[in-house]
Amino acid sequence: MSEREFEVVVIGAGAAGEVAAGRLGQKGLSVAIVEERLLGGECSYYACMPSKALLRPVELTAEARRVRGVTVGEIDVPVALARRDEVIHELDDSSHIPWLEERNVTIVRARGRLAGERRVRVGDDVLVARRAVVIATGSHPFVPPVPGLADARPWTNQEATTAKKAPQRLFVLGGGVVGVEMAQAWAGLGSQVTLVHRGKRLIEREEPFASEQVAGALADSGVDLRLGASPTSVSRNGVVLVELDDGSAVEADEILAAVGRRPTTGDLGLEEVGLEPGTHVPVDESLRVPGFDWLYAVGDVNGRVLLTHMCKYQARLAADAIAGEQVRLRSDGLRSPRVIFTDPQVGAVGHTLAAAEQAGLRVRAVDVETGGNAGGSFIGKGAPGTARIVVDEERCVIVGATFTGAEIGESLHAATIAVIGEVPLGDLWHAVPAFPTRSELWLRLLEAYGL
Amino acid sequence: MSEREFEVVVIGAGAAGEVAAGRLGQKGLSVAIVEERLLGGECSYYACMPSKALLRPVELTAEARRVRGVTVGEIDVPVALARRDEVIHELDDSSHIPWLEERNVTIVRARGRLAGERRVRVGDDVLVARRAVVIATGSHPFVPPVPGLADARPWTNQEATTAKKAPQRLFVLGGGVVGVEMAQAWAGLGSQVTLVHRGKRLIEREEPFASEQVAGALADSGVDLRLGASPTSVSRNGVVLVELDDGSAVEADEILAAVGRRPTTGDLGLEEVGLEPGTHVPVDESLRVPGFDWLYAVGDVNGRVLLTHMCKYQARLAADAIAGEQVRLRSDGLRSPRVIFTDPQVGAVGHTLAAAEQAGLRVRAVDVETGGNAGGSFIGKGAPGTARIVVDEERCVIVGATFTGAEIGESLHAATIAVIGEVPLGDLWHAVPAFPTRSELWLRLLEAYGL
Residue B143 has what pLDDT? Predict the structure, then answer.
């Protein structure tokens, strides 16, 4: 057994771990990052990147059909899948190495386990962290205890994003973000998709109109949507047979379990420092684990918000905290900015109307059609879309915004700046959206509010 | 001769006039709007709307070619032109009538001329404005005094946006916004385009990188670009022959004069109230004409900024001023938000670096590639694009931003909010762009700045 010393040891090289390590390295600290699987983590290979690669040709083909004069045909599925493979670098992580090395980060390819204060065991060796250990081991998909499901070789996000061909019939269990994105992607690439969701509406943390519009779009793509239903048993005998609690049964070639994720902390040695394995690692607003001055946790593993950009944000703050700066999470949890890449896309930041009311704020929401302006003649013409702002009437600032519509995700950041910057409505009135862009939805929203 | 009284008379029903009249009507004031041509003005029929309609299939076809898996063919030009005709309502303005009528605006179809204080002559009648007259007569294209040009039946923006087919060879004189947009549109729709521009670079009020990238894109579209050149004579003998000051000559089927616009004030009766015909109507920051308590001018006619959204902004402020509110232009002139709809698009707000330095600000600019992030894998992949922010180092706020890139215009509004709202960099750092959208350019910019 040998011991090596670093100032910081980061366990896990997904998006959060990489950003934390890279930023610390750039600050001149000696950093080791420990990863037993792929550098880049779920996001790069099995989540955001491949799912967006699968969705983009579907989305763009739909948009091209809305623009008269553009000649567009059916999606070339093998080519689309080959592009997906390119986006995930054929599951080869070597492109991540130079980025880390340029920042003087030492890559340790091993499983990392806590082995007491400031100590991380990697195989037979121990890495000693003089300043801090950062846990960034992420999360893994949860396969719910439906009788027969685990034995039916269910897809998780990993298989759903990397499948080499479109299954003829795909059963999607769960109507959250993964469920709706994968349903749309594979329906667009030729699968007959059935989506079963226990709740009464899809993506139920978002505004009701977002749920409705995504449900409508999925139905238009041929997805067989079953809301308020749950599977009672699953079996695979060549094909998958799913029995539902409404008495019906569905046959499929693959079944995707998309009902949530669990923190990857079961075999991390948490018990060695008095924390509970298998649960989220709790952190305060500086990403520090309460009760420790040397332990941080960033990304999915702390359970605050499971979004790559928020994981990276946490990682930046944690790195700054470790470097001695005062930091505080100012965007967190359900109020974080978020985009769902269906068509219509859903982009949201801050409170939904219901959440704001529940939080006791005195708010008023106004809605306009996303495409209800000149720009809507050119982008997403005729496609569904709603733009809502939730205004705190006491402070005259926007505390939440939800935009739905074709390719609207790129337009979310304006709302994020307005919400986080607490830009007064009176200032927003002078921020003039360019004509004829669809961003004139801002003008329409403020007019609808009464400006 | 009869006299009719209104609280406000608006002369000109382009974008500015319509918005002023509509907003005043909504406030309950009695308003007449006087227009001898089309309700909706240049923008609706001969500028923004048809040019964007022509550019959109070109832009979207280019984007579709960048997304593997999408099957896209050549543009169907007649269909694209038919869509353009639909966008301009076949030059029928009847769709504008209900919008005005719902706001209790009286439409007077006639030429309006000032006839003394608070008086507007329309044919044999006079409209008396108890509170205010708003001049919103806009601008018209300037045909420069090149020998032979006027006799060669040159296109202006009107013909360039409404032509019933692509000319085989189009000569574009002028490399400003109209010149580059029309060159790109018609090149994309099949014309062989030559663009001659007196200056050393195109769109020269924008950042140099924007000029270079648009020039590169035009060249890639087959446009024959001639910078630093001017025509010395033009003749039309069946075809158009243009002789240039570099000794060369160019043959074309049509010639577009796109070298600027002049205020439409020549026959407006300005002399009746002591103002000079044929020049801009000067206004102060409340859009009031200095020396008059009843006369306002909004839109192109006041010469402050020739952009539809800024004309509408001025119109809103003028309406509020007439209704008795205190108003002040907070976005104006060259610093106004602006989008050029080429591919790459150019979106900018506030100062360019050079303009900020010239204004005496202590600034630092940082640049990143627009597509240099995960989102760039999906939108505008491989296409040129630069994002620049100009930071006022004393106040730690962004005073200018220029983004170039495929379809980047919709992303400008985030910068507009940041600039107008004077959102501190420290707040922008917590406004987290969603992954994997291209709006992560904000993260890269702030990192490059040193956050």
Answer: 96
Question: What would the pLDDT profile of A218-259 be if each residue is shown by its tens digit?
Answer: 999 999 999 999 999 999 999 999 999 999 999 999 999 999
Domain stop point among B209, B237, B259: B259
Contacts of A419 in chain B (CB under 8 A): 431
Let me know if residue B56 belongs to a domain.
no
State residue B1's pLDDT score. 79
Task: Kindly compute the dihedral angle of the four CA atoms of residues B200, B204, B208, B214, in this order, to the nearest 10 degrees.
Answer: -90
Which chain B residues contact residue A434 at CB under 8 A?
307, 309, 337-339, 347, 409, 412-413, 416
Instruction: Indicate if B365 and B426 belong to the same structural domain.
Output: yes
Q: Are residues A253 and A267 in the same domain?
A: no
- pLDDT computed for residue A1 by the predictor: 79
Residues B266 and B136 grouped into a single domain = yes
A194 and A310, same domain (yes or no): no
Residues A240 and A292 in one domain: no
Q: Which residues of A touch B330 (CB under 8 A)?
A: 430
Tell whether B387 is covered by a domain: yes
- The number of distinct structural domains making up chain A is 3
Residues A162 and A181 in one domain: yes
pLDDT the model gives residue B412: 98
pLDDT digits (tens, 9 = 90+) for B269-296: 999 999 999 999 999 999 999 999 999 9
Residue in B170, B167, B160 with CA at minimum distance from that of residue B196: B170
What is the β-pairing status of strands B261-263 and B139-141?
A: antiparallel
- Domain-terminating residue out of A322, A356, A374: A322
Q: Do B10 and B127 belong together in one domain?
A: yes
Report, as an integer, the average pLDDT of A129-151: 98
pLDDT tens by residue, B127-143: 999 999 999 999 999 99
Look up residue B212 and give its two tokens: 């270079």
Domain enclosing residue A255, as ranges: 150-259
DSSP reduced 3-state for A191: coil
pTM of the complete model beyond 0.90: yes
Residue B336 included in any domain = no
In this structure, the strands spanning A192-197 and A169-173 are parallel
Using DSSP, how many helices (H) and how many strands (E) does chain A show?
A: 13, 21
Count chain A–chain B contacts defined by CB atoms under 8 A. 257
Partners of A313 on chain B (C-beta within 8 Å) are 430, 432
Q: What number is the average pLDDT over the span B360-382? A: 97
Model confidence band, residue A274 (pLDDT cutoffs 50, 70, 90): very high
CA–CA separation, A371 and A247 (whole Å): 41
The verdict on A307 touching B (C-beta cutoff 8 Å) is yes
Question: Any idea what the CATH number is for the domain that residue A203 is in?
Answer: 3.50.50.60
**Are B227 and B119 within one domain?**
no
Which whole number is the average pLDDT over A79-89?
97
Give the model confidence (pLDDT) of B103-160 as tens digits.
999 999 999 999 999 999 999 999 999 999 999 999 999 999 999 999 999 999 999 9
Portion of chain A with pLDDT greater than 70, in percent: 100
Asked whether residue B339 is assigned to any structural domain, the reply reads no
Asked if B89 contacts A78 with a C-beta cutoff of 8 angstroms, the reply is no
How close B251 comes to chain A (CA, Å)?
A: 29
The CATH number given to whatever domain includes residue A368 is 3.30.390.30
Residue A213 is predicted with a pLDDT of: 98
